[in-house]
Amino acid sequence: MKILQLIFVEPWPWWIGGIIIGLLVPAMYYFLNTALGVSTGYGNIAKLIFPKTKLKWLNSDKFKDIFNWRFFFILGIIIGGFISARLSGGRLLIIDMGIFTQSLNWPYIAYMGWFLLGGILLGLGSRIAGGCTSGHSIHGIANLHPSSMLSTFFFLLLGAITVNLIRIFILGGV
């Protein structure tokens, strides 16, 4: 049980995460001839939910095999989160987002709507940008792709602006 605590509950040192990600990117190319990223896995889930969609990008060859490694990667992220919550003694579902939820007294359904809208906007943004933040920032920059460098710059810039706008207009300047 102690080893599970170390793996799933205790925070890892930043440098261990960096080494693992740094080794995972070339391993993905070597073994699967593909880039590490999350947004295509969300496409797999969308294709599973909407199999008869008319969306061109969901009907591309990339999503012909829904149950590929990307689907299981997303599934692993979700299952890992549940394992971590259970081993740490936490609840399976929480709405605690630090200062955001501490400063607002919204009903549970409002938080659910807020986070759902945020997830939809993230998915839309990753489609428009041609990949998610992890794909562009980890894989793209490592391969010196100018579009990934530009995308990462704007992810960071607009993320910082959005956080400050939320602090000013929703949290009352906290």
Characterization of this structure:
The protein is an all-alpha fold and 174 residues long. The chain folds into 2 domains: 1-94, no CATH class; 98-174. It has 8 helices and no strands. The chain has helices at residues 2-8, 14-32, 39-49, 69-87, 99-103, 108-128, 133-142, 146-169. The termini are far apart. The model has no long low-confidence stretch (mean pLDDT 84).
Distance between the termini: 40 Å
The percent of residues in helical segments reads 55-70%
Number of domains: 2
Unreliable stretches: none
Strands, count: 0
Please describe the topology of this protein.
Blueprint: H1 2-8, H2 14-32, H3 39-49, H4 69-87, H5 99-103, H6 108-128, H7 133-142, H8 146-169
Task: Write a brief structural summary.
With 174 residues, this protein is mainly alpha-helical. Helix content is 67%, strand content 0%.
Search tags:
2 domains; 8 helices; 174 residues; 67% helix; globular; mainly alpha
